[in-house]
Amino acid sequence: MSIKSKTKRCLEVIEDRLGLAAWLGPIMRHPVPRATGWKYVFGSATLIAFVLQVVTGVILATAYVPSTSQAYSSLQFITHDAFLGNVLRGLHYFGAGAMVLLIGIHTIRVFLMGAYKFPREVNWLSGSILMVLTLGMAFTGQLLRWDQTALWSVVVGAEQAARVPWIGTAIAHFVMAGDTIGGATLSRFFALHVFILPAGLFLFIAIHLYLVVKHGISEPPVPGHPVDPKTYRKEYEELLRRDGVPFWPDAAWRDAIFGLLVVVVIAILAIVIGPPELGRIPDPTILNAYPRPDWYFLWYFSVLALSPHKLEPFIVVLGPTLFGLLLFVLPFAGSKGERAPSRRPWAVGSVIIVLIIMWTLWWEGKRAPWSPDFTAQPLSAAVVGTSTGPVAQGALLFHQKGCEYCHRIDGSGGRRGPDLSTVGERLTKVEMTIRILNGGFNMPGFATALKPGELDDIVAFLETRKGAVPRSVSNSETGALQKH
Ligand code: HEC
Predict the structure, then answer these.
(1) Which tens digit of pLDDT belongs to each residue from 292-345?
(2) Helix, coil or strand: residue 440
(3) CATH 1.20.810.10 domain span(s) along the chain
(4) Alpha carbon of 5 to those of 8, 15, 18, 222: distances in Å?
(5) How do residues 389-429 score in pLDDT, each as one tens digit?
(6) How many other C-beta atoms are found inside a 10 Å radius of the C-beta of residue 93?
(7) What dotted CATH number matches 381-483?
(8) Mutational test site, ligand 1, from 397, 406, 427, max ligand atoms within 8 Å of CB
(9) Class of the CATH domain delimited by 33-367
(10) Is the model's pTM score more than 0.85?
(11) Ligand 1 centre and the CA of 395: distance in Å?
């Protein structure tokens, strides 16, 4: 027997015992409408990104230690010492971003083309659950980094959960696995991230794919041709008979090429940019840590930072609840009627508005003017007006004690708190002292962090901050003065 016929015989035996080709063949060759195009590739690309996450995640899990004392150092080891560890973390990080982005685009595409309408309502519902699970993965994954950002994300999550009426405290307790964040929290997030949520993803991906094959891929919408549940199925079958092509290879080649492109882009980003630097080791006593979440949650961070303090509970609870409800109700409320975007201006308009809002919030989150500015440099002698005595000492402390992270003086410093350039006109010595000792809304109290002499110096410095400070000094002069 030649090698060729031996191989053939071998494959025949495998097929006879497993029946894989008999099972998968018809699925791969099921007919799809010919006119599907590049718009249809985002679902399969999300799946490919997920597979990449599973592979890289499993490898990461072989070296990661989910304990508060070792998580940070094991990630340091993976990043700096393990063979290709840095690239691996990069792949997992950018893969996560890609998955969130792709599932978002896929959802918007399905929504705009009305593909959630009859008979594909449950496709939409299972897809919505997949999106929630994906966001859950992104959220829990961020915590496993176990740095300041990680801690922040649980605090936000727990605070948000705690605001749910009646059962809030119980949920917060469940999220944190206790009343405070600690080792149990990390274990719980690890279990969610590597067992529970992935199990949910596998299950719902299976359901989703089964339904996609069962109902067929939606045909591109035709304006003036609304979905009527009574006739839709017959029309769809006729369309396939008239103008259907087998999924493999006639439509699948686009999925394959786009999926490959996604993997290549993720790999390039992982190699060229690399994973995010680990932030500081979490220390709940560090007051001036205002970490930012990963980019896909950045817009939500802005919502939290920008919403008025009193409205926050409503926005934070009602927003996601309404969004979830909308996802759930949509396929039932709109299962009939026009699918074409050109006939559904409300659908198109709402997507544009939501995207603009998210983009604006994202941009604000990136600038984060409400966050302290940790890069603030000490005030120059030109700004302070003197380089000796309590006032100069106070100016130095103003920088050293972190006041300048939040307060601006003559153009340098953060913007989280009020600009103090002219605070000497506004407040008396006593008022300033009280405020500094007690803090205020979004300002920590410094009663224990300052020695009495230091407090006096800072106040002495702040008292000099009046409109009369020579603000007309040009840059060159400032530079010259600084050198002296
Ligand atoms: C984490 C950010 C932050 C830090 C650090 C901080 N502040 Fe503040 N500060 C604020 C905020 C926010 C307010 C407004 C508080 C309010 O209105 O309740 C404020 C208010 C003040 C005020 C009153 C200003 C006014 O116009 O009413 C003074 C004075 C002040 N801070 C001084 C200081 C000094 C001195 C330090 C350092 C020892 C300091 N702050 C550190 C955020 C900060």
Answers:
(1) 788 888 888 788 777 776 777 777 778 888 999 999 999 999 899 999 999 999
(2) strand
(3) 33-367
(4) 5, 15, 20, 50
(5) 999 999 999 998 889 988 999 988 888 888 999 999 999 99
(6) 22
(7) 1.10.760.10
(8) 406
(9) mainly alpha
(10) no
(11) 15
